[in-house]
Amino acid sequence: MGQKGFSWRSFFACYGKVGDSPSTGGSAAAKRVAKQGSLRRRSSFSDAGNPSPPFSPEDLSLSLVGSNIHSFTMAELGAATQNFSASLLIGEGGFGPVYKGYVDEKLRPGMRAQPVAVKLLDLEGLQGHKEWLAEVIFLGQLRHPHLVKLIGYCCEDEHRLLVYEFMAKGSLENHLFRRFFASLPWKTRLKIAIGAAKGLAFLHEAEKPVIFRDFKASNILLDSDYKAKLSDFGLAKDGPQGEDTHVSTRVMGTQGYAAPEYIMTGHLTTKSDVYSFGVVLLELLSGRRSVDRTRAGREQNLVEWARPWLNDPRKLNRVMDSGLDGQYSVKGAQKAAALAYQCLSHAPKNRPLMKSIVETLEPLLLMDDIPTSTFVYSVVEAADDRMEGDAAKKTQGKDDGQRAQSKENGHRVEATMESGRNQHQHHGSRLRIRQRPKQINYTDTALYRNSPRHNRRRGA
Ligand SMILES: Nc1ncnc2c1ncn2[C@@H]1O[C@H](COP(=O)(O)OP(=O)(O)OP(=O)(O)O)[C@@H](O)[C@H]1O
Ligand SMILES: [Mg+2]
């Protein structure tokens, strides 16, 4: 961790005790907090990151007492996932592999029987512990219908795991960009955009606002009814306090989604999330990835390519996903595109607030000027998982459940502002960690061009 005076051992000794008996509250301090009930205030991640008073490890554990988060053992999570069986692997991102599992009373008395997703920290990851802690602190305390529910965690020896409610339809990224998935209908896309916007609005409007910082299609998970929930709070940050207008941070996020001023200055605001929301909205409209190296020249960067057409109703059809086969409300699409345009403004102050984004999007669901549909069925033979656009959109396939995937797109980046030396780095997979950091300039284009994952995909 490199945090002076902050002992993981003491933190977890305390933390584990409390978490082991969430209902009874093992310690006197736990009982004290249990009594306080809903009067609890959310503890900041920065509080936990700062080892000095007033925040002690005990305070950190206390902040989770009333949240009903379970502390699991490795043996229990092994039992829940058939010993992390490869057949239950449902995905893999920067943090590590994700398995489907099942928990019930047999595992833990009183535990509601339910499927879960178990995320296992890749132990060679550089930022792993900190991201794991951020996830536990934020998701342990924040509850909202559009945030994925954290059921528990495991902290045993060097192992760090997270246990979430299982989201039956996986990530939005899978549905928009992967073969095997049928093209999402227009109203489902709107529903997803609205759900995700509500999640962000909740974070931004909280008593202690939270900046999500890694809003992207792969971090929007979908339940069986396509209700969208935000996941991955590993990079989340407490918003500016008092008179401050921004939070200064290292530049971390994902290429193609991070706001340009944030990349250039390291100044983080809730408007950085609004920009990222604009990128995802554009992905929903166009069915294209924010960065796609398989496309020609200027089409590789979705925002730069689409921006000129977004505010022009006569040219918007150039941007719209052909996988929709014209089955969308033209007026609704124009309004959504104009909204995306605003979110993608270069000047953060011109970007709307998340709550007004929700207000703009919700009425679009009622617009019924959608042409009657003709069912199109086509089979695509190509085996390339990176197949994009038209062909992928028209592929008829399994619309349910999950498939194991390792990450191929959406590159996490990190740059150290303080040092003046700009580092660009993946963390998560072993391959990524071993790559030498690359130099970047703080401009979009330089950032996009220096994508290690892209290089890897091309065999570099
Ligand atoms: N709660 C969950 N329910 C169902 N599937 C999940 C859940 N959490 C994650 N997944 C699956 O695991 C995949 C990997 O998720 P993960 O958050 O680790 O990485 P990512 O978001 O794809 O990439 P990154 O590390 O860059 O954020 C997701 O795309 C999704 O398919
Ligand atoms: Mg994720």
TrEMBL record:
Residues 387-415 have a biased composition (Basic and acidic residues). Residues 32-43, 423-437, 451-460 have a biased composition (Basic residues). Keywords: ATP-binding, Kinase, Nucleotide-binding, Plant defense, Serine/threonine-protein kinase, Transferase. The keyword Nucleotide-binding applies. Pfam families: PK_Tyr_Ser-Thr. Residues 21-57, 387-460 are annotated as: Disordered. It comes from the Eukaryota. Its EC number is 2.7.11.1. GO terms for molecular function: ATP binding; protein serine/threonine kinase activity. Residues 84-365 form the Protein kinase domain. SUPFAM superfamilies: Protein kinase-like (PK-like) (SSF56112). This is non-specific serine/threonine protein kinase. It comes from Colocasia esculenta (Wild taro).
